C-alpha cells in the first residue's frame, strides 16, 4: 500500500508556481513519513536497532520538521511515533522485540511493500529538489546521502551512548543546533539545553580524554 499524497493547498500551489519559474525541475516537499521510511530502506534495508534511534536521527537532522515532546532521557516526538504507527498499520514496516548486543530492543524493519514504496521515494528524491521548512531548497540526492550516513553512524547505539552524543553536540553547537525544532514550550527547550550542558560537563570531568 502506497503512502497517500498530501492534497495540494492554495499555498502549495502558489509556491510550486513560483519555483517552476526558476526552472529548477521537479520540486517536492518531503513529509515526515518519507524520512522514516527511507531511513528503514537505506543502508541495504538494515533494521533500525532501537526505536529511539529514529527519534534521535530525525531530531538532530535539521531538514526534518519535527515537534519534540517531553521525555526523560532522549529526544522523543509524538509526531514521529504517530507516523511510525501509521506505517506499521499500513504494513509498510513492522516492530518486534529482539536481543541486540545483550539488550532487548524494539527493532523496526521495513516490509516488502514498504520497500516498494521506499524505492519510489528514493527515485523521487533523487530526481527532485526538496523544499523544506517552506524556504530551504536541497537536492534530494544529498538528503539521501545524509540520511544514510546518519543511519550508519547512530544505528545500534545504546541509550547511554546516544545521551552522551546528544549532550556533546548540544554543548558544542549551542542553541543553533535545536533552532529547527519546535516544542510545547520555549522554557522546556531551554531546560533540555541546560541539562545537556550539565551532562556534557560531567562526562568530560569523569573522562577528560
What structural category arises from helix and sheet content?
alpha/beta
Approximate shape? globular
Widest sheet, order of strands: 1-6-7
**Residue share in helix:** 40-55%
What summary fits the major beta sheet?
3 strands, mixed
Q: In percent terms, what proportion of residues is strand?
A: 15-25%
Number of strands: 8
Q: Spans of 5+ residues with little confidence (pLDDT < 50)?
A: 1-11
The span between the termini is 50 Å
CATH fold naming of the domain at 25-156: Arc Repressor Mutant, subunit A
By CATH reckoning, the class of the domain at 25-156 would read Mainly Alpha
CATH superfamily of the domain at 25-156: Winged helix-like DNA-binding domain superfamily/Winged helix DNA-binding domain
Radius of gyration: 18 Å
Describe this structure in words.
By secondary structure, the chain is of the alpha/beta class. It has a domain at 25-156: Winged helix-like DNA-binding domain superfamily/Winged helix DNA-binding domain (Arc Repressor Mutant, subunit A), CATH 1.10.10. The chain has 8 helices and 8 strands. Strands 1-6-7 form a 3-stranded mixed β-sheet, sandwiched between helices. It has a 3-stranded antiparallel β-sheet with strand order 2-5-4. A hairpin with a 3-residue loop joins β6 (129-132) and β7 (136-139). α5 packs across α6. The radius of gyration is 18 Å and the shape is globular. It starts with 9 loop residues before the first helix and ends with a helix.
